[in-house]
Specification:
Layout lengths: L1 H37 L1 H7 L5 H7 L9 H14 L8 H33 L1
Helix pairs in contact: 3-5, 4-5
Subcellular location: Mitochondrion inner membrane
Membrane topology: Peripheral membrane protein
InterPro entries: J_dom_sf (IPR036869), Tim16 (IPR005341)
């Protein structure tokens, strides 16, 4: 009698655990799919990048004044000012570097987009 009760408890517990595990897996898969579909800034942040807004704040640039020349001018100044030789932080230098990298990639992307748009309009 006791062994039958023990077997029932084990089977009931195993079935409850199995259902809970499969439900949790389904929820995790659904959340993962929704996160992958969202992309955008979350994708950039998860890949170690920073957003363009944050990059512009770091380099102290306004949206209307972003150009390669202005970008390189701000980058060179801030990178030099924050050098370890001058007693400043490598962390700040890396932030400046990643801001420059992000904005360069964004400018290249916008340039390609503009070229594709002009190419499609002239065809």
């Amino acid at each position: 009698m006791a062994h039958r009760l023990l077997v029932n408890v084990i089977f009931t517990g195993a079935s409850v655990f199995g259902r809970a595990f499969t439900e949790a897996y389904k929820q995790a898969a659904k959340a993962s799919a929704a996160g992958a579909a969202a992309g955008g800034p979350a994708k950039a942040a998860s890949q170690g990048g920073i957003s363009t807004e944050e990059a512009m704040k770091i380099l102290d640039l306004e949206k209307n004044e972003v150009s390669i020349d202005k970008l390189e001018e701000k980058y060179n100044y801030l990178f030099d000012v924050n050098s370890k030789e001058k007693g400043n932080s490598f962390y700040l230098q890396s932030k400046v570097y990643y801001a420059m990298d992000t904005l360069k990639k964004e400018l290249e992307y916008l340039e390609k987009l503009k070229e594709n748009k002009n190419g499609a309009a002239s065809s």
